[in-house]
């Protein structure tokens, strides 16, 4: 059995990551999922949060996803998300500013539908800010 699996993280706009990895960790619907080579086939929804990809050489790549779908095969993992952003490209301050605007929208929301849309956006922005903060802390600790 191979000790790696092929990983693709794809957004609506572009392929964010494509390569071999030793492991992938991501936010499943019921908690964190760790995927290793040879994993049982699986299709699952994923929550907004961080995808951690451990490359063959042990280095790590982090990607923010705004939820989506996960497909696992014994030798491949595919993550499909409307929005996927490399953690290195995230801006915590921008995410927090957008979150403040969304909170204002929530205060002004009138219908259940408007409230649900804004609450989903708030959850995504909170996860995005969290991933940006974690990435910044990891980067600071390396230097």
From TrEMBL:
It comes from the Bacteria. The lineage of its organism: Bacteria, Pseudomonadati, Pseudomonadota, Betaproteobacteria, Burkholderiales. It is a peripheral membrane protein. This is ATP synthase epsilon chain. F-type ATPases have 2 components, CF(1) - the catalytic core - and CF(0) - the membrane proton channel. CF(1) has five subunits: alpha(3), beta(3), gamma(1), delta(1), epsilon(1). CF(0) has three main subunits: a, b and c. The gene is atpC. Keywords: ATP synthesis, Cell membrane, CF(1), Coiled coil, Hydrogen ion transport, Ion transport, Membrane, Transport. GO terms for cellular component: plasma membrane; proton-transporting ATP synthase complex. InterPro entries: ATP_F1_dsu/esu_C_sf, ATP_synth_F1_dsu/esu, ATP_synth_F1_dsu/esu_N, ATPsynth_dsu/esu_N. GO terms for molecular function: ATP binding; proton-transporting ATP synthase activity, rotational mechanism. Belongs to the ATPase epsilon chain family. Produces ATP from ADP in the presence of a proton gradient across the membrane. Residues 92-128 form a coiled coil. It is found in: Cell membrane.
């Amino acid at each position: 059995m191979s000790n790696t699996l092929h990983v693709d993280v794809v957004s609506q706009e572009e392929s964010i990551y494509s390569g071999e990895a030793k492991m992938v960790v991501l936010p499943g619907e019921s908690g964190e999922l760790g995927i290793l080579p040879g994993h049982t086939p699986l299709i699952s929804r994923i929550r907004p949060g961080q995808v951690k990809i451990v490359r063959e050489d042990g280095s790590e790549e982090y990607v923010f996803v705004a939820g989506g779908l996960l497909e696992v095969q014994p030798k491949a993992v595919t993550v499909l998300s409307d929005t996927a952003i490399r953690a290195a490209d995230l801006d915590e301050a921008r995410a927090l500013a957008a979150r403040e605007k969304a909170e204002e929208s929530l205060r002004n929301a009138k219908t259940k539908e408007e409230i649900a849309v804004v609450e989903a956006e708030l959850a995504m922005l909170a996860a995005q800010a969290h991933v940006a903060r974690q990435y910044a802390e990891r980067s600071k600790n390396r230097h």
